């Protein structure tokens, strides 16, 4: 069924229902602006079993609970949330039109908060999700490196990305191994020497299978059956910046949306915040950017009204 806006023009459409998008919606609604949030339920935050580094939750908070609280807060102030994916953005004069399989909506501004998608290791989805929920598989050492203190930890990956992740984690534990996801680790002699010096082991890949055994994650390689308390896939992520790119917004070399100090993109009326923008992928940073973006949207819209007068 088509659910178009029937001629209504929103002050802002927020694409993304993660911490950045929902923070922006709260700000925008409290600025007395009309806000429509599109949530395709793909936020990485939803997969966080429990976060202990988000301020204000001394006993930790799950990603699902945090998002639910934020949605309730945004809706309390008048923001609308729809659960569907925006597939295209189009410029319509001074407006931007958001297209989805079930309809289309128009707004004076659009805030992109579409985030990124983690690249997963090869393993059954059910095993992956169970391991993630139990802390056997982790994606963010900045978020939860503390939780693996002095534990046996594996890093799956190759090259500089795996090297840097292992170096970061080494400050938490001495029991650290890089497992190549290919037949060789693609590390240079300097990197190998540095890893050996600090006691990081190297295991030849590829990883043929991953399974759970009790409270450990088991990686099977050509040479060994390896047991870890936690494993970090250092495989990178894919930035969800296609909507911005197709609209003509400038991207960084890494594919992130380029923004100014107020989160404005190079396309008039289009803003971006959160992990889709280059920087440290942290909830606190995403929320801070969202507050900046929402305030810029409010001020830019007010300036437009004054110019018309």
Automatic annotation (TrEMBL):
Pfam families found in the cross-reference section: Pyr_redox_2
Keywords in alphabetical order: Flavoprotein, Oxidoreductase, Plasmid
The keyword Glycoprotein belongs to this UniProt entry's keyword annotation: no
Every FAD/NAD(P)-binding domain range: 10-290
GO MF assignments: oxidoreductase activity
Lineage top rank: taxon: Bacteria
Claim: Flavoprotein is one of the keywords in the record: yes
Name this protein carries in UniProt: Thioredoxin reductase
Organism: Ensifer adhaerens (Sinorhizobium morelense)
């Amino acid at each position: 069924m088509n659910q178009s806006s029937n001629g209504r023009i929103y002050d802002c459409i927020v694409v993304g229902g993660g911490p950045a998008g929902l923070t922006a919606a709260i700000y925008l609604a409290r600025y007395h602006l009309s806000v429509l949030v599109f949530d395709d339920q793909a936020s990485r935050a939803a997969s966080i079993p429990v976060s202990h580094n988000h301020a204000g939750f001394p006993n930790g908070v799950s990603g699902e609970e945090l998002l639910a609280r934020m949605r309730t807060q945004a809706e309390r102030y008048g923001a609308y949330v729809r659960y569907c994916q925006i597939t295209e953005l189009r410029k319509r004069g001074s407006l931007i039109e958001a297209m989805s399989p079930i309809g289309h909506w128009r707004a004076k501004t659009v805030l992109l908060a579409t985030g990124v998608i983690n690249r997963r290791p090869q393993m059954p989805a059910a095993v992956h999700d169970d391991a993630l929920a139990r802390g056997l598989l982790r994606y963010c050492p900045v978020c939860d490196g503390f939780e693996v203190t002095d534990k046996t930890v594996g890093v799956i990956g190759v090259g500089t990305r795996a090297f840097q992740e292992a170096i970061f984690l080494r400050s938490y534990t001495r029991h650290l191994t890089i497992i190549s996801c290919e037949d060789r680790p693609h590390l240079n002699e300097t990197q190998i020497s540095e890893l050996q010096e600090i006691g990081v082991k190297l295991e030849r890949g590829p990883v043929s299978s991953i399974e759970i055994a009790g409270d450990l994650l088991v990686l099977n390689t050509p040479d060994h059956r390896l047991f870890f308390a936690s494993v970090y896939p250092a495989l990178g992520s894919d930035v969800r910046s296609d909507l911005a790119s197709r609209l003509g917004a400038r991207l960084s070399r890494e594919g992130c949306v380029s923004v100014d100090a107020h989160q404005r993109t190079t396309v008039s009326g289009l803003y971006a915040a959160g992990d889709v923008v280059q920087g440290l992928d942290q909830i606190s940073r995403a929320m801070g950017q969202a507050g900046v973006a929402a305030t810029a949207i409010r001020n830019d819209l007010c300036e437009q009204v004054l110019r018309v007068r």
